[in-house]
Backbone:
């Protein structure tokens, strides 16, 4: 009698909406179609290090089955984005084998997936990857799990702040995530009607920002404005790059670009413009996944299982041209992080509608 296959699944890096939907799809497909045993690895490499796992089946988590996971934010398996995995690589690698896994599906961003891929190569793991990140900066895929929901969350915040801005004749500066890639700022800024969008890929001029705000007041009689700024945005002179601090764990974090921009707007207007700052922070990561994130999460989870069946290891599922495909992980890492192309049609769209999105890059 053939031994029942054992499939591991873990979530690594920062959390985002849609992770549980991927888990649900993997468990459902692997269990119902192939009768495999699925083991959830708590807290990614930490779970492997400690040989911890939880058996998951279609009816094991809730009396209603796995369906609640489709709309639940975060990850039921927990996640980590810190620690020195490389220093204990051999122990982590051994954890995969000690748990008796036939294959592993890893859900993560380009950073955590790169570490896991190196462990897989070193330890002989059979691994397939699923991309997730609200920054949408994983290469070779047009969408990663979590991005669409984060954009919707920011847009809702912009709508709320617009009413307050209009009521008090203020400039609202909204700081969003995006250390190196400005997809969140650009997409949410356009969808939320921002007047200024500042992204890492397109250095800005504070004089141009102020000119845009003055134009709204002097030419169009609008005494308020919405400015969306990615945390990694910087001026053409490099200002903004120093807006960071080191936390208690020694991690370098970005902070303060929103305050900086608001202060500069007030200064260049001779303190005639009142600017207020809202830092959305981890609010962007929370909440129930959008319909689109549920769709791609489900499609990604199903396809990841199919790749395991076909023994197509070392691959990542990806969204290209409206469908799910697979790409070699090494190709993903070679081209990550993914930046906004200077010729991106959305940049041209924003500029055509009068939005200032930084200085065009030759």
Residues:
């Amino acid at each position: 009698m053939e031994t029942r296959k054992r499939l591991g699944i873990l979530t690594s890096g920062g959390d985002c909406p849609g992770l549980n939907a991927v888990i649900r799809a993997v468990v459902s497909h692997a269990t119902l179609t192939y009768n495999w045993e699925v083991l959830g690895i708590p807290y990614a490499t930490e779970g492997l290090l400690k040989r911890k796992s939880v058996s998951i089946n279609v009816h094991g988590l809730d009396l209603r089955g796995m369906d609640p996971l489709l709309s639940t934010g975060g990850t039921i398996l927990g996640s980590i984005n810190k620690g020195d995995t490389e220093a204990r690589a051999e122990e982590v690698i051994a954890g995969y084998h000690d748990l008796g896994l036939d294959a592993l599906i890893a859900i993560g961003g380009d950073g955590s997936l790169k570490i896991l891929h190196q462990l897989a190569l070193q330890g002989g793991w059979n691994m397939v990857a699923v991309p997730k990140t609200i920054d949408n900066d994983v290469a070779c895929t047009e969408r990663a799990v979590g991005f669409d929901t984060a954009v919707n969350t920011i847009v809702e915040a912009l709508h709320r702040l617009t009413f307050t801005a209009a009521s008090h004749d203020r400039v609202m500066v909204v700081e969003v995530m995006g250390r190196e890639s400005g997809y969140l700022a650009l997409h949410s800024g356009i969808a939320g009607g921002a007047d200024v969008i500042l992204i890492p890929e397109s250095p800005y001029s504070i004089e141009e920002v102020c000119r845009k705000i003055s134009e709204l007041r002097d030419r169009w009689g609008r005494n308020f404005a919405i400015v969306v700024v990615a945390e990694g945005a910087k001026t053409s002179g490099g200002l903004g790059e120093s807006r960071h601090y080191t936390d208690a764990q020694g991690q370098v974090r970005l902070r303060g670009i929103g305050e900086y921009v608001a202060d500069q707007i007030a200064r260049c207007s001779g303190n005639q413009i009142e600017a207020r700052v809202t830092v959305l922070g981890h609010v962007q990561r929370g909440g129930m996944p959008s319909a689109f994130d549920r769709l791609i999460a489900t499609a990604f989870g199903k396809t990841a299982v199919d790749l395991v069946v076909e023994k197509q290891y070392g691959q990542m599922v990806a969204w290209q041209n409206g469908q799910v495909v697979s790409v070699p992980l090494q190709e993903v890492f070679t081209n990550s992080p993914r930046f906004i192309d200077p010729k991106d049609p959305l940049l041209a769209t924003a500029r055509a509608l009068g939005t200032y999105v930084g200085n065009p890059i030759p």
